[in-house]
Each structure stands twice: as C-alpha cells, then as structure tokens.
Design brief:
Shape: elongated
Number of domains: 1
Order of helices and strands: HHH
Distance between the termini: 29 Å
Low-confidence stretches: none
C-alpha cells in the first residue's frame, strides 16, 4: 500500500510541479501535498468525504451507541 501512496505522490506532486531548483522547494511542495492528502482529499472508499469528515462521522456513530454499564459484560 505504501508503494501506491509513493506513486501517487510522485505523479501528483513531484512530476506535476517539478523540476525543482532546490531541496527546499521540493520540501515545501511535499508538505503541502501531505496536508492535502491527510486533510482535504475526497476518497471513494470513504463515501467521497475528507478523512477528517469520515473520522468525525465514525466517532459520532460510536458515541451514539449504548455503552455497557460498569460491571456489565460487553458483547465484543
């Protein structure tokens, strides 16, 4: 899976925005791409939500489920 992310990074960031004159230029573009990848991208496996929106929906669902009382057995 890491190879797929590296390939995506190279195709969308390095080859698209390059060539770079300095390492600093590449680092800045990389930081921007990583922020987009982790916070803003839409993903089909996540119902076209951003990762942050997907995580928020997941934890809302977990929080809304009834939790066992202290001392009760959990069913998981």
């Amino acid at each position: 899976m890491a190879e797929s992310v590296i390939g995506l990074y190279k195709a969308e960031c390095v080859r698209h925005d390059g060539p770079f004159r300095t390492v600093d230029g590449l680092e800045l573009v990389t930081l921007s791409w990583v922020h987009w990848f982790n916070h803003d991208r839409l993903h089909s496996a996540m119902d076209y939500l951003t990762p942050i929106e997907y995580n928020q929906a997941y934890y809302r669902q977990i929080d809304s489920q009834p939790q066992p009382r202290p001392g009760e057995l959990a069913l998981h």
